Amino acid sequence: MEQTEPHYTNLPINVFFRSLAMYKGGSAAAIILSGTGTDGSIGARDIKLNRGMVIAQEPASAKFDQMPVSAINTGVVDFVLPPEEMSRQLTRWLKKIDMDDSKNSSELQHIFMIVRAKTGYDFSCYKLNTIHRRIEKQMYIHHLTSMSDYVKVLRDSPQEVNILFKSFLIGVTRFFRDSEAFDVFKQTALPEIFNKKPPDYCIRVWVPGCSTGEEVYSIAIAINEYMEETQNHCCVQIFGTDIDRDALSVARSGIYSDIIEHDVSSGRLKRYFTKEKNKYKINKEIRSMVVFGEQNLIKDPPFTKVDIISCRNLLIYLNIALQKKILPIFHYSLKPQGVLFLGMSESVAGYSDLFELISKKAKLFERKNTISQKQAIKNFPDLSQHHESTLSDSDKVNINSAKPENNFMLKKYLLNKFVPPCMLVNKQGDILYIHEKLKKYINVPSVLDDLNITDVMHHNIKNILKSAIMAASSKKKEMTYHDLVIKHHNHIYTINLKVLFVNEPGSLHNMLLVIFEEESIQDAKIIRKTVKEIPANKKDKIILELKTNLRHTTENLQATVEELESSNEELQSMNEELQSTNEEIETSKEELNSLNEELVIMNTELQSRIDKLATVHDDMSNLYNSTEVATFFLDNNLCIKGFTPKAQEFIHLIPADIGRSIAHFATTIKYEKLIDDAEEVLRTLNQKTVEVQSKTDRWFLVRILPYRTLSNMIDGVVVTLTDITEHKETEKKLSHLNKILENALTCWKNILDALMVPSLVLTVDLKIVSANRAFYKNFHLLPEDVIDKKIYDVKEFSIPMIRDTLEKIYPEGNLFEGFEIETDYPGDSYQKIIINARKIYNAEFGDDMILLAMELK
Question: What is the structure's pLDDT at 217?
Answer without folding.
Answer: 94
